[in-house]
Design goal:
It is a single chain. The chain is an alpha/beta fold and 297 residues long. It folds into 2 domains: 3-205 and 283-296, TIM Barrel (Alpha-Beta Barrel), CATH 3.20.20; 208-279, no CATH class. It is 41% helix and 18% strand. The chain has 14 helices and 11 strands. The strands form 2 sheets. An 8-stranded parallel beta sheet has the order 1-9-8-6-5-4-3-2. Strands 7-11-10 form a 3-stranded antiparallel beta sheet, with no helix packed on it. It is globular and about 50 Å long. The relative contact order is 0.14. The structure holds flavin mononucleotide (FMN). Residues 17-20, 41, 43, 69, 71, 96, 117, 138, 142-144, 172-175, 193-197, 199, 274-276, 278 line the site of flavin mononucleotide (FMN).
Amino acid sequence: MTQLLEILGCKHPIIQGPIGHLNDPKMVAAVSEAGAFGMLALGFERDLGNIKRMINEVRELTDKPFGANLMIAINPKNDAILELLTEEGVKTVTTSAGSPKKLYPKIKELGLKVLHVCLAAPPAVKAADAGADGVIASGTESGGLRTAGPESTNLILVPLVCDIVKLPVVAAGGIADRRGYRAALALGAQGVQIGTALLASEESPARQAYKEAIIGCGDAGTTLLPVGGITMRTIINPKLEGLMASGADLSKEYAAGNRNKAWSKGDFDLYPAGAGQISALINEIRPVKDIIEEMVS
Ligand SMILES: Cc1cc2nc3c(=O)[nH]c(=O)nc-3n(C[C@H](O)[C@H](O)[C@H](O)COP(=O)(O)O)c2cc1C
């Protein structure tokens, strides 16, 4: 058994990519039931009662392990959330969007296992120094929040991180099927984190319009939208395409505060759908179990 599987306690080395505003216990349970590692996305969630309710709902649906993602610099309730997760028996968390130094003393004190998401190689070294049990290397093709600077693809980043940290590495970004899964393992990763492909799955809480936007997205169909000094990878729709062609300042056209509303309503003129470059390879809405089983076949 690999170190990663020991940390996760599941059958397949596949982690559900947390999707900040689209959190659903049923989806988490479906991923864990399929033998992968379901994740609650708690980056924006501040309501402890709601978190407890979601954990209980997952537990009613599966006895398999699952974890939770915390966004370090974004959520002021992280300490209390970590205590709640520990009380509720969640054993593994992932952290992203911030410096591990801030939260790791608490995580270690509580005895939780933790993997940190790194968008470049130097933060992986810092995460290892702070006591991470593993790192999630996320190349520029990935969906989600990105930097505003130059970034590497996973073909470069994953082996780079594997060479410089002596911890299990998970590849996040650009993986939707067995080819990507095997490629990630060949690069030295012990596992993968899957965001966009699971976002477009049958059980995903995303609106049908969101899933269809991913299915309809072709090669080079995403861009990095500036948001407050960082970026978010989004699908280029006709409105965004027009704005890009006109040379408009995109950071002024879309407010990050509208993201939650836009995504939960499927209103992509208000804020474009967040998704990774891998959308180009996702052509149908499939059950989670089929996605996972094909990946490891
Ligand atoms: C719409 C969207 C929202 C995301 N929200 C989060 C989040 O809240 N926390 C986090 O650590 N990663 C987040 N991510 C990143 C995913 O968890 C995952 O690492 C990434 O999507 C992997 O790349 P892929 O989309 O190519 O599979 C998000 C990704 C997307 C597409």
